[in-house]
Amino acid sequence: MKRDKPKYKQIIDAAVIAIAENGYHQAQISKIAKQAGVADGTIYLYFKNKEDILISVFQEKMGVFVESLQEIIKNGESSTDKLSQMIDNHFNVLANDRHLATVTQLELRQSNKDLRLKINSILKEYLKLLDEILIEGMFKGEFNSTMDVRIARQMVFGTIDETITSWVMNEFRYDLIETAPKVRHMLLNGLKG
Amino acid sequence: MKRDKPKYKQIIDAAVIAIAENGYHQAQISKIAKQAGVADGTIYLYFKNKEDILISVFQEKMGVFVESLQEIIKNGESSTDKLSQMIDNHFNVLANDRHLATVTQLELRQSNKDLRLKINSILKEYLKLLDEILIEGMFKGEFNSTMDVRIARQMVFGTIDETITSWVMNEFRYDLIETAPKVRHMLLNGLKG
Amino acid sequence: MKRDKPKYKQIIDAAVIAIAENGYHQAQISKIAKQAGVADGTIYLYFKNKEDILISVFQEKMGVFVESLQEIIKNGESSTDKLSQMIDNHFNVLANDRHLATVTQLELRQSNKDLRLKINSILKEYLKLLDEILIEGMFKGEFNSTMDVRIARQMVFGTIDETITSWVMNEFRYDLIETAPKVRHMLLNGLKG
Amino acid sequence: MKRDKPKYKQIIDAAVIAIAENGYHQAQISKIAKQAGVADGTIYLYFKNKEDILISVFQEKMGVFVESLQEIIKNGESSTDKLSQMIDNHFNVLANDRHLATVTQLELRQSNKDLRLKINSILKEYLKLLDEILIEGMFKGEFNSTMDVRIARQMVFGTIDETITSWVMNEFRYDLIETAPKVRHMLLNGLKG
DNA sequence: TATGAATGAGTTTTCATTCAT
DNA sequence: TATGAATGAAAACTCATTCAT
């Protein structure tokens, strides 16, 4: 399996750095290869084309979020607790990897519609887990049982996304982690009403 | 003033259509010129370069939102009412112009970081008005007076943005306007808590 | 019409020279453009892509053969006379343009199967005229009236083609024109038998 | 001697199949190696480079023609008989190996001028035997004793070559063997005149 | 002998912008 | 003002060949 070989991850990580430092359109294959310490052609032994690298970046990194969230769902106490943990986790991961935050919040969005649709379908898995939490909470009476789940999900994800994007656009000038409890508090109010 | 001449608006509108129909990267100057019914070179009598067109598109169209919002602030009764009207207005305008919705929610985000930063600074005016409503509401006791305004703003804007983007990505398959009251309800709960 | 503009023919002629002097695979667009005295991009205002240039080269140049042959058919006396003139004309044109001879006999045959099929369909027009002469001659009793036209055509064309290709491969070391009467004589014998 | 080892012929045969099935430019070393059941690197233990494989393909396969022709010359009765047998043999071999026919008549001609010159020098041995037959025939009075041998040879070979190439280009749609007697008849007429 | 992972040179095409008319 | 022909820079990808094992 290609994705188990060391060079696979090596190239993925190089891509994140190259994109974060040079911008999406300036992250040429040659720059990614140089950053990874391999020849240009080597990239194509592990990835079909440039788009394949970008999708894989998203897939690999998103995988971390999905796995954490599955863990949280398994071990969390109440729905409220699970949602809180999810928010905290999302903030924590990106607060601790600014390269990755730049890539997911800013750079990867410059990709064309086609690539963005693929990225979105990867995102869906994460959002489905979020839906699970919301539905469970409605059922248990922790959240407003009459709310529209899709809109609730869009509020939760939209708020998290906008918060983090602003932080990146403001060049990490403030402490992202500190804002997490406030975001959590506000969202939970929205869901409970 | 260039922007009062008929061809200025003509080119702006042509750009929105060209981008919506062809996608950001396939909306070449020649296509915009053709759509506008002018020669390629003529574009450069009204705009410095391609980026200038895109910024102007955003500026002109955003202007409509800002003006409506100023009107709403002037005439709205309570802060709650103003916020509700703002949300409804935002949804209404884009629900009624799918070309514009496609361009602002999907296509223009493919622009490079530089352009997106400029677009963001245009957006600031709109967000400042939103902040006004929020602060007034906190002061009047309609919203939670201890909340962090920045985060509140990010929740309101992030939720609206995510909601509309999803609608565009789902190819307008459902009625956007119908979701407005639910979004409004949920956000107000978040702000009141 | 693009092919009436001076630059169209200018580029075609530049392509013949560039290919003859550098070889098919070494005749890059940049070399053709330089030879034509235009910018690389200008090529694409007149031709869809590189293959389009090569097809057009063949089409334009083959056109000369077809026109001459039509003239010969119109004015020639007997079928024997027409065939003789056709052979002489074919030899004369290429003997007087060694660049062209190199391109048609050697270089253009390096093109891929796809391009060669297109070239062949252009050639068909010429071969159809040759068939006309042969059929007329069979009818009039000048040629063997029981022969297989396809094979007769293949003999005539195959012999001419092989003769000229050998001359090119031998780097024009002997006088091609001098061989024409001998070729003519031998072919007519074959057809008469 | 390398060419006596089993893998040598194995690779040659694999090359013919790979080229016939994929086309000249799509027959990469890796495909030939795969077809031969060896690793890419192994190819280079038997051949200097890719060109060397192609030359060897032609050499080995042409060898069959040369040997048959030598046999024919040794055992044939008259010159006319020898020439007839040569034509029949040439048609028979290729009619019975369509892969080989595709490779020699179409694909190998896409090679660059350099390689084609080398291929031509291999062909010379075959053409020299053909010359022998022609000269003997002229001497014996079976063929026109005043004809130019080079042109006669070019007629014979050009006709055969064109006939077979057309058959391949027409995707083997008709029976090649059936045309042999007609070709033979027509050529002999040409030579006798 | 045999392997196959790694290398890196090389070219077509697009399109924003200019400028002579 | 308006035109549109001409410009030329810039980047992804392929594949023959090598060499450590």
Automatic annotation (TrEMBL), chains A, B, C, D:
SUPFAM superfamilies: Homeodomain-like, Tetracyclin repressor-like, C-terminal domain. Residues 5-65 form the HTH tetR-type domain. Residues 28-47 bind DNA. Transmembrane segments: none annotated. Keywords: DNA-binding. One of its GO terms (molecular function) is DNA binding. PROSITE patterns: HTH_TETR_2. This is TetR family transcriptional regulator. It comes from Ureibacillus chungkukjangi.
